[in-house]
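Repro:
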Amino acid sequence: MESQTFYWHVYFLSAPMLADAVHLDAVLWAALVRCGIEPKKAISDIPLEKGSDFFAGSAGLCVGASPLPPVARPAPFVRSARTGDAHETGMKSMPKPLLSAYPVLGAAEMMFIGRGNMEMVAELLDTVDGIGKRSRQGLGEIDRERTQLFPIGDVSFPLRWPNGQPTRNMPWKLFAASANDEATSRDVCRGIAPFQVPYWQSDHCDVEVASATNGYMRRDEFMDWLRSARNG
């Protein structure tokens, strides 16, 4: 199947905890590893186009409803059994919910853009049930009934969102070369970070990059931007 550009619209049953940007290629890499592929081999098996530097997969962009506040989680309800007695005692009432103090962003919806083998991408994404920190505990659970993958058409992978910010971590020189003006580049976060999968491995080389951040965009503005990209 030929490569095509697509976007993945993700709805969540519970808000994900996002301290850092989550890239589509990292999600697909994790799905491959979960399917039993050896981690190093999984990097070459990611079904996205790859240029000389990185895979054509964006970081997630929060859309729709505004970002959510920190997630409320209940404190544990502690019980203790008396010796020789089946009766259990505990607190008279459930404790008040605690607010997580992590510096994170919650989202009800996210969009990812990618370019590659859409059929293989769809098969892998079907195995992904959560995104973000503490997904194994239920945070960031994906609403499968509403989440969909849509083809965009004959459009190249975009390096920038409409506000000029990078769609993903990418080498600074490449990003700067794509800028329309110097003022746009000055507003972008520039730092030392990895840009190749897997981003979190300590033996991976860090380089100077234009950093993707957990951005927010209204859904209608995002769709208008896609329509203009298709017609452009």
